[in-house]
# Entry
Amino acid sequence: MHKPTQEQIIEFYHANTVIDFLEIEVVPTPDGEARLELCADSRHANLYSMAHGGVLTIMADTAMGAKCLALNKRVVTISLEMKFIHAVMTNTPRVFTEAKVLHDGRQTMVCECKILDAKGKLYAKATATFYVTGKLFDD
# Structure
């Protein structure tokens, strides 16, 4: 099976213009993929000086979609559940995504994504089901 390179996965993240608009960073990982990172500031905040839940949801949804892409599958989100555990305040250290595939089917995929800080503190957790629209590369 032909799998996307790290560069192609990073290119995928930047093709999602909302990631660049929100200035969410795309950081290569040692496993040959990438993750999203955010230092929340006033641009990302709600009225309570915490990162808006929508910003964190965009991060999780995009990270899970990229995890599916790393398996050579293009997907669209069918459903997504987001659980917020701790507030990401505007003075919170950098948070990042950690996504994994739970089910890799021909027509659907299920993923999970955690949003953590460097100390391992969990801020949010998402689970999503995706519809497979095709492959990035034909085998």
